[in-house]
Amino acid sequence: MQEDFHYYAAYCAAYLAGFDHEESLRIGYADQFCDCCTETYLGKVKGPRAAATTQSQPELASAPGDLLSIQNMTRIWASFHFLPYDLNATLPGHHSKKYMQKYRLICKPNSDQVEETVRIAKGRSLEHFGISMHVLSDTWAHTYFAGTPSLVINNATGFYDLNTDKPLVFSHNPTIPEDPEKGNYVNSPNLMDEVSIMVLGHGRAGHLPDYSFFRYKYMPAWGNYEEIVKDNPADYYLAFRQMVTALKYFHGDIDEFVRGVYDEVSVEPHRERIMAILEKRQVNACADWKAFGEELSGQTIPDFDIFAFEKEYLDAARKEDTFLGRFCAGAIAQKSMITNRIYLSGSNLAGVSVDAEGRRFQRNSN
């Protein structure tokens, strides 16, 4: 997903869940800020680098590809963008331990991990709410990819556009503007390197998972290159409804967040409008989501500004009382929880970890 859903759609979901305009803005901002908070940015503002929620292209390009850099990538991408679905998954037949550790990081919605992601945010800050919404919504967009560099898991081929009934031909030139009408799309090249950043997450699928209008089929490496279908409009609509459910849990309107429950009461009256936005063939839906949000609240939604809270943080005597301070606290809690779960499953892909509360558990030897 990208700014249109992470900022503007998150604002809409928060407002429909009962938060006021200012609260909804902070939730939406924190959601989108997960795609901006790099170690480089945190170094600039002298924040805790452990709170990084993403990596910039220069950071990835300069990573040496050794075990420590792969662990750092996995801690970030699996915690915030490709939440593992089943850390104890099994497969028929024989598979190496290394393969299974990577296979178990494949992202899908409605996992134990997404329930825990929402649970640990309950009663915390609006910024933490926004972080959890980023993680939750990305489980829908990033389904079937893993947040670790792996050719045997994330490689993919045979992309076919079900909207136009035509095969997709990718360019590897990131300077070419993507254009649905011309069929111009960009993906990462296949370098046949198991730990290349080219096979981190959905790089081989380009931005297809990030565009809400796309319906497509393709063949993933982890599935022995057997064809699967991805219906983004349907998935994005479920993601939006699940966000409203989780945000109502945060707001105190429901007692428990349960996976597989999607709000109907608040969202259904707007279904036609939302689906029209989701199905519109455009690579950037910010304007449409912004217009919808402003109609809901009657308030102006400012454009997202990565520097909006920087001065507040730099000038503050108590960093923890600022937007960035609260965001960093939530990010560290989320990363610690997921990294710990990966470690306890018997995997070293995210490094050695204990949970945020310092409790230690016996590792699974699978």
Number of domains: 1
Q: Mean pLDDT, rounded to whole units?
A: 94
H-E string: HHHHHHHHHEEEEEEHHHHH
State the separation between the terminal residues, measured CA to CA: 32 Å
**Structure summary, number of beta strands:** 6
Unreliable segments of 5+ consecutive residues: 358-366
The computed structural class is alpha+beta
SS element count, helices: 14
Shape estimate: globular
Name the beta content range: 5-15%
Strand order in space, largest sheet: 2-1-5-6
Rg calc: 20 Å
Helix content: 40-55%
**Main β sheet profile:** 4 strands, antiparallel
Task: Write a structural description.
The strands form 2 sheets. The chain has a 4-stranded antiparallel beta sheet. A two-stranded parallel ribbon has the order 3-4. It has helices spanning 3-16, 21-33, 39-45, 57-62, 67-80, 97-103, 112-121, 126-141, 151-154, 232-251, 271-279, 286-297, 310-315, 323-344; strands spanning 156-161, 166-167, 170-171, 185-186, 215-220, 228-231. It has one domain (3-147, 231-344). Mean pLDDT is 94; it is low at 358-366. It starts with a helix and ends in a 22-residue tail after the last helix. It is an alpha+beta fold and 366 residues long. The chain is globular and about 50 Å long. Strand 1 and strand 2 (166-167) form a beta hairpin.
